[in-house]
Write a structure and sequence with these properties.
The protein has about 120 residues and is α/β, with parallel strands linked by helices. Helix 2 links the parallel strand 3 and strand 4. The longest helix is centred in the last third of the chain and has 11 residues.
């Protein structure tokens, strides 16, 4: 799923940060269009506008904290099998601000909705 999402996001003009569990899992992602390949969510610098999250549990909570204000998180799997415990009121608080802005995701959202 991540490799297809990387290609699709790149095709739509997004800056793509691919997060993997190990360096070996990131092999070939830059060739598919990832601008950055990092090991673990803790290595993501700044905030992001769109997250496709497949692990669930604590990873989902961490990914939520990386969202820029107005960002979107899509949980498309639950490989961890662990519960996600969000801090109280975290769904009402804005995410961190960072390098990606609405100018990236607004056109991306419009293009994706046409597929």
């Amino acid at each position: 799923m991540g490799r297809v999402a990387t290609q699709l996001a790149r095709h739509c003009g997004a800056y793509v940060v691919a997060v993997v569990g190990s360096a070996a899992r990131g092999a070939g992602l830059t060739d598919l269009g990832a601008d950055e390949v990092v090991v673990g969510l803790d290595a993501v610098v700044g905030s992001v506008d769109v997250v496709l999250e497949t692990v669930g549990g604590p990873s989902l909570v961490t990914a939520w904290g990386l969202l820029a204000p107005g960002g979107v998180l899509h949980s498309i799997g639950w490989a961890s099998g662990e519960p996600a415990a969000f801090p109280v009121n975290s769904t009402f608080a804005g995410g961190r601000r960072g390098r990606c802005g609405p100018s990236v995701t607004r056109p991306l959202r419009g293009r994706i909705s046409r597929f």
